[in-house]
Amino acid sequence: xxxxxxxxxxxxxxxxxxxxxxxxxxxxxxxxxxxxxxxxxxxxxxxxxxxxxxxxxxxxxxxxxxxxxxxxxxxxxxxxxxxxxxxxxxxxxxxxxxxxxxxxxx
Length: 106
Known about the structure:
Helix content is 71%, strand content 4%. The protein has one domain (3-105). A two-stranded antiparallel ribbon has the order 1-2. The chain is mostly helical. The chain contains four helices and two strands, in the order H-H-H-E-E-H.
């Protein structure tokens, strides 16, 4: 590993993967593109955690591919105005869409 910074990044990767999986569980089937984005995020963090343990760069730049996929999925989810898992630090429920929030304001 890369010393103390490696341990910190490894812990951050584990936390990011757990947060991603928690978001998927909270959203269930309500937000398909958002769930795909969170799945790609979990994969990204898993790839990074393995790379830290092995002290190598992920093969074939799979981490960059996962970053690209998660970015595209979250952009599409934003355009489609899908509900997001809230609160962001530890999701407990699916939030309102932008349209639902605007309608609630009147």
